[in-house]
Write a structure and sequence with these properties.
The complex is a heterotrimer of chains A (202), B (333) and C (425). With 202 residues, chain A is α+β, with helices and mostly antiparallel strands. Chain A contains 4 helices and 7 strands, in the order H-E-H-E-E-E-H-E-H-E-E. The N terminus and C terminus of chain A are likely disordered. Chain B is mainly β. Chain B has one domain: Neuraminidase (6 Propeller), CATH 2.120.10. Chain B has a 4-stranded antiparallel β-sheet. In chain B, strands 2-3-4-5 form a 4-stranded antiparallel β-sheet, with no helix packed on it. A 4-stranded antiparallel β-sheet of chain B has the order 6-7-8-9, with no helix packed on it. In chain B, a hairpin with a 4-residue loop joins strand 11 and strand 12. By secondary structure, chain C is mainly alpha-helical. Helix content of chain C is 60%, strand content 1%. Chain C has a two-stranded antiparallel sheet. Chain C is globular and about 90 Å long. Classes of the chains: A alpha+beta (202), B mainly beta (333), C mainly alpha (425). Chains in contact: A-B, A-C, B-C. At the A-B interface, helix 2 and helix 3 of A face loops of B.
Amino acid sequence: MSDWAKVDRRDFMRATAALGFAGAAYAVSGDKIDEEVWQLDPNKCTQCGRCTTHCVLNPSAVKCLNQFNICGYCDMCFGYLQPGSRAIDTGAENQLCPTAAIKRTFIEDKYYEYIIDEESCIGCAKCVNACLVFGNASFYLQIRQDICINCNECSIAKACPSDAFEKRPISDPYMYLTGDLESTRSTPEPEPALPKDFFIQQ
Amino acid sequence: MKESVRETKHPWLAGIAIAAIAGAYFFFLGTSSYREPGANLQYDITQYTEIDDIETRWEELDEIPLDLDSPRGMAVQGDRLLVAGTNAIAVLDAHHNEIERYAFEGEPNCLAIAPDGTMFVGMPNEVQVLNADGSAGSRWTDFADRSYLTSIAATDKNVFIADAGKHVVYRYNWDGERKVEIGRRNDDLDVPGIEVPSPYLDLAVNDEGHLWIVNPGKLGLERYRPNGDIVTSWYHPTLELHGFSGCCNPTQITFDKSGNLVTSEKGLVRLKKYEVTAGDFQELVMGHKTFPKEQSVRDIAVDAEDRILVLDPRTDTIRVFGMKESADVATTT
Amino acid sequence: MNANRVITALGTLLVPAAMSGAAEMRFPPPDFYSAYTLPDLYMPPPPTSNGMWDAVILFVALSITTWMVFQARSRRGLFLMSIFSVAWFGFYRTGCICPVGSTQNVMAGLFLPDVGVSVVVLSFFVMPLLFSLFYGRVFCASVCPLGAMQELVAIAPIRISPALERVLSMGKYIYLGLAALGVATGAGFLVCRYDPFVGIWRMGHSYGMLLAGGVILLLGVFVARPYCRFMCPYGVLLGWMSRFSKYHLDIPPSPCVSCRLCEDSCPYNAIDMPTPQHLKEDPEVGKKRLRGFVFASPVIIAIGAIVGYMMYEPLSRMHPTVTLSEQIAAEDVGLLEVNSSLETETARGLDRTTEQLHSEAMAIRENFKTGGAWLGGFLGLIVALKLIGLSKVPKLDVYTPHKETCFSCGRCYPYCPVEAEPTIA
């Protein structure tokens, strides 16, 4: 008889614990049950360079991007050129980028396209700083989600001096400087009719 | 596969060794840190900001607080200083006290006052005319959606309007009719075309009636005739003190009482003076250290006493810069 | 050095129209005369739905391990399973998310109102606990990559005295308590930050963490599973579950013959020996002692809570805002050079004034008073429970695995002569 009682009590406790888990699970999941990923807010970024050195990956999962629809396509691009360089050309000594990851392509008189090669970019934000100071701030950092392994505690986030890192839903993992990329896309027509909200307040 | 636990022959030795290893573990955990980014990962323009340490002949005299929402444009007429903010123009007297206020609708980008007192307020794609007494005049709305008006200058015949969005300057007559588009690229007339990578495009008319337009992308100025012909131009693309740097500079220009050009820049924010016809650098008025946090200033003007007024976006005030007294004496003797 | 500082300072100073709140106008690209179209800005999406697959694989691995422990009774099978877990959960999936770390996500979900826990994370947290509730710590046996890695390197384990074992195993309760405090106060995920294995899985980290990982594996050669026994916060929860498990690994499949052969097989002090005759005491003495400890427990808990409360100042330094505020204060009174670190330098450039920072830090420090008291009370409770547990002399006739501390690793299987050799081994 006592054996029966013993088994009952143990089973009862197990059942209580299982119910406790279920309850806790229900309590914590709430509405926000989507998976989340890390991203950095370019508006808070101070270009300190720690994204390069503090990522568990080498090279870092943080890369620079050039958002073309706010790029000035300048000949004298400070994100591209070493300050004080004697010539405006693709010479290695004139390039600001420590890994020469920015590719400069001539488009037409006085306009050049700048594309960042993700393979080479180490996310140091030198060009971001320069473009922010002198240009349109079309260069900025983002965590490339295909590279990021999404650590539970991002080690760059912990080291970021301006708290620019946050968790975002996996369905919307990037923070663009202009919300809608499509609406600001220029067309080659001479008089492009663009929507009214064309100038974007940051 | 049998794995067995060993009895140590020297428990104390083993204990010390294990304690040492464990100690090392906590030491490494505690002192774990990443390498800090070195100098080659930092953007370095010190050599160009350091030159701002040089002693100038100028000093900050005053700071005028403004009772306006996002003040953006300034104009000077005689002793009076006009500042345009959202929905209102404040008129300040020689002592910087507000004496009058005119109302209009909208968020202005720029302000001009004609010799007879008529005011022109530039919105992103509209110009509102206010009569000299402040009553509302006509509204010019024939601008494109893409237009972004950044500067206006008014002479007794013409109104010149800079449109950064369309990369062009318009000449209007006083009746609001568009007469000429100035600065559009034209290879036959050797007009290089105004390049505007960011929303800054300024123009000014000096006392001789010459129209000077900034070509921000080329980092210099161009002089045009009212019919759109280019007269002359000069460009100084360099980070050095005598030139302009970045994608688009100077951002603001005006003329002082002796006809010299006063410029302000974005990025390395600094106020400088030039001889306008050839573009010869004259002097640094105020360097980047005076505007440590500003990306650029909103507007500059020169008042009746030849002081330089700067509309500072960080403080939303007008900062007044004047010649140091000692310097003044030095120049007059 | 100084030049560097200047540069960074300038960088920070120049930056921030955006940060000073001024609305910086963004501008369109030029009109191109040639037929040039803007390139697409392709930003690759995160790899989707890996999480669900990970959960499925975790379930399968737990099931296989359970089968190994109960049906196959194969030490070799569990060993092979360990190799798989190290390779898959460790090196291939780089150790995130793991059930150990998920503890903090769940605690964050419980403590912080605006934090949710995704289904995947929750299933990673709950699954091993449920398995533990029914089959003992099969997750530790060979599914957890941390445990598996240590199991693999434990080739020359030495015996640690049970008393020392008990003292050191308090470490995991302290770690669990600190982790909870860190989550509740917003200081961060301590368990992930100080995970010595994560650098090994990713084959890259700070040198300190890589060295720590190496050192703990070296330690693990002689002291088997040091992390699991003395540090693992999730192990605390698993142990509690396992204590009440419906089924648990038995050393012999049929009646124990008390041959003592398994005594030397367990490096974890997890086999309870039959109680020697001379220790069997008068039940009345035991009851008296037990009563004493039960009445003493509230006092122990209260002392713990008071000590924890008094520790709020050093404890609060685990929060970055508090350290930052202290650094800035030290700089302001001249104890440190101004802008002595990138953190203070940046903080001074932000909109937030130092006064705001200090008051924020003070508010956080207040939280640590409450949190410290809870932490101390929790540890006091653990101590009290341990004392009560110690005061009960078990009456065992046969060799039994200790359900709370046994990792179900199967090291004792090959030693037991009662069973037939497993087919796989």
